[in-house]
Design a protein that fits this description.
- This protein is of the alpha/beta class.
- Helices cover 34% and strands 18% of the residues.
- It contains 5 helices and 5 strands, in the order E-H-H-E-H-E-H-E-E-H.
Length: 143
């Protein structure tokens, strides 16, 4: 099984950026933990601070027959990008939306996700453990 993990803007700073909100674990550590938990799976990780790159990633992987799902944390584009929403809506794979913090309890502009209704599943506010939960959700869909 092959799963893509795609992160949006500022998530390259995970572990250093606002640790009181996003925790102290780096994305490298999150990925290592996931690979240890699922040693027989193949993961592809992509991150960009640029909206168009994220759209390209979703389009490329979303139609690739070797992948079984996408874990997507779109960062700030969750709340602003209709174009990314459209790319997810066209995707042929299940996309699991992940938010480290509980966006429903944050600033008003963060409470609306343009992605939730086009994603197969959403995990909000479970910290970086949400990534592993998203992987498990995709695995469960293929059993």
């Amino acid at each position: 099984m092959r799963i893509a993990i795609i992160n949006g803007p500022n998530l390259n700073l995970l572990g250093r950026r606002e640790p009181s909100i996003y925790g102290t674990k780096s994305m490298e550590q999150v990925l290592l933990d996931i690979q240890r938990a699922y040693p027989d799976l193949h993961f592809e990780y992509r991150q960009s601070n640029h909206e168009g790159d994220l759209i390209d990633f979703v389009q490329e992987i979303g139609y690739h027959p070797a992948f079984q799902g996408i874990v997507l944390n779109a960062g700030g584009y969750t709340h602003t990008s209709v174009a990314l929403r459209d790319a997810v809506a066209c995707c042929c794979l299940p996309v699991v939306e992940v938010h480290i913090s509980d966006i429903t309890q944050r600033e008003a502009f963060r409470r609306v996700s343009l992605l939730t209704d086009v994603c197969a599943h959403t995990i909000i506010g479970h910290g970086t453990d949400g990534y592993q939960e998203a992987v498990q959700w995709i695995i469960n869909q293929h059993q």
